[in-house]
Amino acid sequence: MAQKVGPFGGNKGDAFDDGVLGYTGLKKVTVGENGNGVDCIKIEYEKDGTFETQMHGSVTGILKEFELNYPDEYITSIQGTYSNVARYNTTIVKTLTFKTSHGRTSPMFGNTAIFSTDFVVEGKAGTKLIGFHGRSGSALDAIGAQFFASASPLKHIEPRGGFGGNAWDDGVYDGVRKISVGLNCGNISYASNGYLYVKGSTSVKHSHGKMSEEPKEFKVDDPNEYVTSVEGTYNFCGDVTSLTFKTSKGRVSTGFGRSSALGAHFAPPDSATVAPVPTPKLEAKGGDHGAAWDDGFYEDVRKIYVGQGDSGVSFIKFEYDVGKKLVAGDGHGKMSLLGTEEFELDFPNEYIVSVEGCYDKVFGSKLKL
Prior knowledge:
By secondary structure, this protein is mainly β. Helix content is 0%, strand content 51%.
C-alpha cells in the first residue's frame, strides 16, 4: 500500500501530485536553486519501461542534478527546510537533501536561512519514494512524497563449514527476535529456539543440532533492529567453532563458541527488510529559559566550540559535514572574554556517541544552566 507524507512548506502556488500518474520509480532529480532557496524540481520517472520528466516551479537560477543507480538504488527520505521569503511574499522550500537505499546522501540543494523550519519526508521502514507532491508556482512552495514497499529480492548466502549432517533451511521471515546457541567441547552443537523468527504478528521457532550445554541467547529488538551479518570460524573437520552476530544498531553479540554447516538468508542493503532505523531525537537537558534552537540534520559533526562563562557554559557552536563539505552551524549563547575551547574529531573515522554534562541553578538566580 502506498503511503503519502507531507507536503511541508507554504500554501501558495498550484498543487501537484506525481504519485497518481502510475510511475514505478525515479532515475534522477534536478533541483533549481537561487539566492532565495529552491525555485524548481525536475524528476525523471520510469513508467512501463520508458522515462518521463515532470517539472514543478520556475527556473530562475542554477540547476543541479542528483542521479540514482536506477533501478537498484532509490530515495528513502528527504530532509529540508522552509521559511518565509520576502521576494515571493510567502513561505517556500529553502533546502533539500536526499538519502538513498545505498546509504548515499546528496549535496544540500538550495539556500540556507537562519530562521527556518526543518522537515523530514520519510516513509515507513522498507519503502521507497515513487513520486513527489506539493505546491509550486514561481518557486517550490511545498514538497511531500509518496512511498511504496520495495520489492527487492532476497539474497541467499551459501553455508560455511563442513558437509556432514542433515541439510536445513529455515526459509524467509519478516525478522529475527532471538538467537540461542549451544556449545559442546568448544564447538557449536545447537542453534535452538534457536532462531526465533517473526512472521507478521506470529513468532516461529526453529532449532538445529543437538543440545549439550545450556544455550546462550542473543536478543534482537525487532522490528527496530535486525541482524546485518554473521561472522564465525570452523575447524579442519568442518565443525563450526564460533559465531558472532552484528546488528543494524551497531551491536555485536558475544562470541558464541554444528549443525555441521551454517548459512543465512540475507536481504541486500536496498531491500525492504534492511531499511535504516530512523534516528531518534533526544530532548534537550537543562533550564527552560533563553531562545530555543535546533541545528537540524547533518551527516556528521567535525568540530565543537565550547565557551566558558562565570557560571558555566556560555556558548556552543558546531561544524558539520554535508556531502564531504564543511558547514558551519550558528553559534548559540554568548561568547565571553574567556573565549572557546575546541574539540575536533578525526573525521570521517570518528564520531560522537554520547554527550555527558550537568546543570544546576545559578547562585542568586532561579535560572538553570
